[in-house]
Amino acid sequence: MKYLLSVDGGGTKTEFYISDLQGNMIDTFTTGSTSIKSVGGDKSYDHLKAGIKWLKETYKITPDDILMGVFGMSGCDSDNDYQMILDRILSLGFTKDNVHLCNDGVLAFYAQTQGPGIVVIAGTGSIVIGIDKQGEVKRSGGWGYHFSDIGSGYWIGCEILKRTLLYCDNCHPYSPVFEQVRGYFQAESYTELPYIVTEIKDMNQIAGLAYEVVKAVEEQEELSINILKDGARQLADQVAGMVKQMDLSEIPKIVFSGGVLKSKIYQDMLASEIRQLIPNQDIQFYIQKNRPSYGGIKLAQRLLEKKKEIVLQVFTGGYLSKETTYEEVESKLKPILEKIKVTKVIIGWSVDEELYKKIKLLVHKYQAELYLWMPIFSETGLMEPVSFLQDFRGEEVKSYQLKAGENFEFYCPNIKQNRESVKHIYEKHFSKIGFDGIFLDKIRYSSFSNKITGVFSCFCPECMKKYQEKQLDTDELRMEMDKVIEGLEGYDGHPLKCLTYEDGSYRFDNPIWEKFFNCKADFIYDSLKEITGYFREQGLKIGMDVLSPFLTHFTGQDLSRLKGLTDFMKPMMYRITYAPAGLPFEYDSFLSGTTSIDTDTVRREFNQLLGIKTSGDNRFDLDFVKSELDIMERMDIPVYCGIEVNRIKDVVPADPEYIKDTINSLSQTNIKGFVLSWDILSAPEENIEAVYHCFGGRGEMQ
Ligand SMILES: [Zn+2]
Questions:
Q1: Which residues crowd ion ligand 1, with CB under 5 Å?
Q2: Which tens digits make up the pLDDT trace of 221-236?
Q3: What is 1-102's CATH topology?
Q4: Please, which residues bridge with residue 118 across strands?
Q5: Which residue, 456, 484, 516, 496, is CA-closest to 609?
């Protein structure tokens, strides 16, 4: 059985909360402080260990049994703190995969509500923490008692103490609260009081004065009212600053937490100050009543929902390329494998046995699987004899050259030799390496990016025979294709005269299109059935590179059938790639290839048919991509969504903001994971940092 664990590590005590996966509490356990700043590294580690021991002895639960452990730790402020505390947690037997470390304040928020929102904590110290839509954490204040932590118990204590001491020195008018201060320190007189105060070493003792101030406020004592109001105003400033920083479009939810903010008067003052600063009057205030450790369980559940697998894709060059060295791959891959949990690495397809053997050792060391990335109906011609696709006029389909070493030729799936050549390449060059799986690329006909004739294929003698078997009228089909090219009978402004698009399928004005594309899908399926059968015999798992459902129809990919041949699929959701397989490029090629008039009108109409919204930023509609992933989800396909992390000048302008935006948004779908495509070797460091930001298993403290 698996469990959730929440650890609320405070400055004075630490609470362990263990629950089942539904969040039902099994038990709690309290031990001493685990704040490295309050009790130091050794003691905090001992207290953590005590909790883990309790779990093992009482419930026989070990860190292995914990699906997600949320550690909300006081004193976890900087990257240094984070690393130091994380190392200690990991040495208890947890892995980066089942630990989420954050500041303890985050738990107080989740104890009461779900993000996005803000939590204001005023206890001994104070801090304002913002949690955005994606669960990312920002902070304000809480930088230490001496210079920050305004509005906290310690700050209020100092404010009143300063004035009391001035009064003791005859520099301040009398105020009744001073009597309470004198009583608090058990001083016989105001002459003795300063001598007692100078001896104080415990912050908490000063923070305790805040409760005297609150008491005095309840009795309408003026000086105390002013101090408390000042604290509330400054805390409200921090909240307003946080709202600005977070760009909250929804109604802000604000949670009040911490000892001093248990005071109703202080809560009211703070709420009223916040209302004055934030124009949105619909703010919802919550008082943190549930225990913070319960918030950790809530957060653990949320993180599990969000957790996606990560797959890396590495391009070592085309078959004939020999440029990529092991050192290059290692220097790029190792830091990623160290930092985040990667489950698969897809690599190919230069012919270099030694390179892959070394990489296999590296990848296996991090418990990831290694897949050979291999093009099936393309590229083979560089190594073995092949037969090209023939278009409807009997000409060979021309290629689109993306870069040297990758030819983007397409071969007919119906020609036995083409399939045998693929197997032969594998046998000869890759079979001795010991890959865990094979990742099949270009398992389709050419798309519109090879011009319209690429789609109006294949008409080789072998294919003609097969069309006849399937009773496809090729004469009519050719005539219809001519009409498209000539722009006759309404084809000029209406792509293939598509009528509807639903669940990944099109209906056309002339049903011959459907028949034609179904034939292509049959041929690809039959051909892949043989090829995947061969690879299964070699003991390999199988993955497939596929197009987004709205493009698959035209290239012979029937995802609902192909899923039976593969362990997973990677739809290429390249929203900004202007090259083959890139969504904007393929879509443009489709529209411009099939029509001849007024592109804007055509686009507007077809956007409507598909449900695509255009934005000004040249990125393919994210909501549409989500709906495409939903289609695959309904087909029950294990999906690892391919997104670009590499940057290629004038082709793929992927930057950190694009990557974060895409990952965070698509994480809300039911996909199993992401494939960081299509070449991690050409991903700039800042793009990889963006990936860490999304998958680092931590709430970033900024
Ligand atoms: Zn053919």
A1: 412, 414, 458, 460, 463
A2: 999 999 999 999 999 9
A3: Nucleotidyltransferase; domain 5 (3.30.420)
A4: 130, 254
A5: 496
